[in-house]
Amino acid sequence: MNYDTATIWGIIAVMGVGTFLIRFSFLGIIGDRELPPWVLRLLRFTPVAVIPGLVAPLVVRPGEPFDLAIAAAAAATLIGGYWSKNLPVAIVAGVLGYFAVEFL
Amino acid sequence: MTSSSPKTAFWRGVRKGAPFFAVAFSFAVVFSVIAVEAGLTIAQTLGFSFLVIAGAAQFAAVQLMTEGAPAITVVAAALAVNLRMAMYSAALVPHLGSAPVWQRAILSYLNIDHAFAMSMAEYEAHPQTPVPEKVAYFVGLVTPVAPFWYLGAGVGAVAGSSMPDDLPLDVVVPVAFIAIVALMLRTAAHWLAAAVSVIVALALHGLPYGIGLLIAGGVAMVVGAMADAWLEKRA
User: Fold this and answer.
1) Is B25 helix (H, G, I), strand (E, B) or coil?
2) Which residue of A46, A81, A88 is in closest CB contact with B80?
3) Which helix (H) or strand (E) holds A70?
4) Contact A67, A45 (CB under 8 A)
5) Among B4, B52, B197, B226, who pairs with A53 as Cys (CB 3.0-4.6 Å)?
6) Which helix (H) or strand (E) holds B220?
7) Interface predicted TM-score of the whole assembly (ipTM), two decimals
8) Chain centre distance of CA A64
9) Tens digits of per-residue pLDDT, A32-63?
């Protein structure tokens, strides 16, 4: 990892403070003013809008050879998680999907 | 709430929250192992889990750091993942807004997903409960869970540094992320937002570090919210 120690601690500190301020925002500072419904709606979509874009290049691997085992792990995790609604089950499903292709 | 004192409300919260210790523990272990394998020191790894306490954002940060993204992109993407918590914060205002500010600050630090979801269910079922009991219930929900998050962070950091280097990180990271998202895909609008995010992020993958992701996130958020509004109107 090509960061000096100060930069890494800076990232951790800003993320820590920033996350706290997001959690504290309305409850602590803004009080009980109502948010416009469309803002709440946008905020509700942030995780499903950001995380898939982050993970897609790790699975598709542009510019690198396609890896069937990783694709199998991704598909198994998605299916396992969607059906079970349970995080550990989803992760185990993904790992099994990986080893199923890698070692069979 | 059926309880008549903050003390009984607290213990009811403890019983309700307890099963989530396993999720918190396993999540914290996985994060620490990945962070140490990616090259963070044990202190930095624990710093993430103790100061941020938000698994998905921490994974996002470490992944972008492995790719060598500029610090500003790392922080922006990670905080974008956490923006949903502003919604949690707003939703809690009618129930906890009149508690003392120091209590609201502590609750905010501890406002993790399971505690938010379970406390809201309870508050909406019993809106007339006195605020001190609502606060006690929330604290009860996180009390049996938070220690296992810290414990898992420590166990994972120690285990990660003694682990062989051939751990397939290129599998573990996507699996952890997809597992998080899979649990959130409840409506067609969620699926659409996720699909748009994937397509735009891949199309813009050539852009310098992380910029494509920020654009993809913004576009997917708008598309998802619009689809959600449209579905609601049609229903």
Assistant:
1) helix
2) A46
3) helix A68-84
4) no
5) B197
6) helix B211-234
7) 0.81
8) 22
9) 666 678 877 887 787 788 889 888 988 998 88
- Tell whether pTM > 0.90: no
Contacts of A18 in chain B (CB under 8 A): 75, 79, 82
DSSP three-state, residue B17: helix
Which pLDDT score is estimated for A50? Answer: 81
Evaluate whether A19 touches B195 at the Cβ level (below 8 Å): no
CA angle (B127 as vertex; B125, B135 as ends), nearest 5: 105
- Whether A18 has a pLDDT exceeding 90, the answer reads yes
| Contact between chains at B185 and A95 (C-beta distance less than 8 A) | no
Q: Residues B109-146: pLDDT tens digits? A: 988 877 887 787 788 788 899 999 999 999 999 999 99
What number of C-beta contacts closer than 8 Å exist between A and B? 279
Residue with tokens 């951790």: A12
Cα distances (angstroms) measured from residue A91 to each of A55, B94, B133: 15, 36, 36
H helix runs in B82-187, sequence order: 84-96, 101-109, 113-125, 131-142, 146-161, 169-182
| A68–chain B Cβ distance below 8 A for any pair | no
Distances in Å between the alpha carbon of B191 and those of A43, B55, B84, B125?
16, 21, 17, 29
Quote the tokens at residue B46.
Answer: 């624990």
pLDDT 10s digits, B147-190: 999 999 999 999 887 766 555 667 877 887 798 789 889 899 99
Say yes or no: A45 contacts chain B, CB-CB below 8 A: yes
Distance, in Å, from the CA atom of B89 to the CA atom of B87, rounded to the nearest integer, reads: 5
* Contact criterion met (CB < 8 Å) for B178 and A95: no
CB–CB of B89 and A22 under 8 A?
A: yes
Q: Least CB-CB distance to B175: which of A14, A16, A91?
A: A91
Distance, in Å, from the CA atom of B166 to the CA atom of B150, rounded to the nearest integer, reads 26
* Residue A65 contacts B, CB cutoff 8 Å: no
How far apart (Å, rounded) are the C-alpha atoms in residues A6 and B178?
Answer: 31
